[in-house]
Amino acid sequence: MMQKRKFGPLENHVSLMGQGTWKMELNPKESQQALLRGIDMGLTHIDTAEMYGEGQVEEIIAPVLKTHRQNIFLVSKVLGTNASFNATIHACEQSLRRLETDRLDLYLLHWRDNIPLEETFAAFERLVEDGKIGAFGVSNFDVSDLEEGYSIAGPGKIACNQVLYHATQRAIERHIGPWCKAHQVALVAYSPLGQGSFPQNKTQTGQVLSQIADKYHASPEQIALTFLARDANTFLIPKANKIKHLEDNAQSMDIELECSDLKFLEENLPQPPENPSLPLL
């Protein structure tokens, strides 16, 4: 069964690996089957957003929730352009309607726009009070954004920061990851295998991953996921349309890399830049 970890300031623990759902509208039936298999394997952290397929993905997820809702840590996101007080409330209610559930376990601001954080967070607090969400967090926030949000919300309020993080994009390791860990904000890595750009064997990065993969009788993708999950404050939400892909992802969390191999990967995978900007897709 999938390992669970303490999720930021929340009392409940959340599966180390979850399931992303971006672009699932392209393969709805296969995606539903993969989601169900993932839930069976303990990948019960399901992440979606109102933006995905313009709401279609939330509707695709709804049947999966029917008999599994009590076991799922359900996350959705509000668009930055919809993040005013009233629009956030409305967006959340629309997500709940599409998902056919009465609550989200976590609701995120997908990214910052021009709307003040005070207004968005006030809406989040109202949604918590009304029982429509259990907690709130952010996505695509740099350290300056996090500090502003923390000053508004206070300690123990921002549950997570969801960011781009994969073997060839380690920028968040420099400042964002340490800030989140120090302030008890969970770090959730989206696209942890890249977005159709996983390094091939002929590349230096591909060779590094393959070298370690051969030792553990694993795939380079599994080694990459295991490497990214090495910090106890990090969670992964890869997307898988196919059951075999899903199972491979899940089984990567059973691999225990030796310290020497972790050190080798730390030193030989592309390094985070000295002064990184916030990575985005």
Polypeptide structure, described:
With 281 residues, the protein is an alpha/beta fold. The protein has a single domain (4-197, 225-255), classed as TIM Barrel. Helix content is 39%, strand content 15%. The chain has helices at 28-40, 56-65, 85-99, 117-129, 143-153, 176-182, 204-216, 220-228, 243-251, 259-268, and strands at residues 4-6, 13-15, 19-20, 45-47, 73-78, 106-109, 136-139, 158-164, 186-190, 234-237. The strands form two sheets. Strands 3-4-5-6-7-8-9-10 form an eight-stranded parallel beta sheet. It has a two-stranded antiparallel sheet with strand order 1-2. Helix 5 (143-153) links the parallel strand 7 (136-139) and strand 8. Helix 1 (28-40) packs parallel to helix 9 (243-251), helix 3 packs across helix 4 (117-129) and helix 7 (204-216) packs across helix 8. The protein is globular. It starts with a strand and ends in a 13-residue tail after the last helix. The mean pLDDT is 96.
Write the layout of secondary structure elements.
Elements: E1 4-6, E2 13-15, E3 19-20, H1 28-40, E4 45-47, H2 56-65, E5 73-78, H3 85-99, E6 106-109, H4 117-129, E7 136-139, H5 143-153, E8 158-164, H6 176-182, E9 186-190, H7 204-216, H8 220-228, E10 234-237, H9 243-251, H10 259-268
Parallel strand pairs: 3-4, 4-5, 5-6, 6-7, 7-8, 8-9, 9-10
Antiparallel strand pairs: 1-2
Helix pairs in contact: 1-2, 1-9, 3-4, 7-8
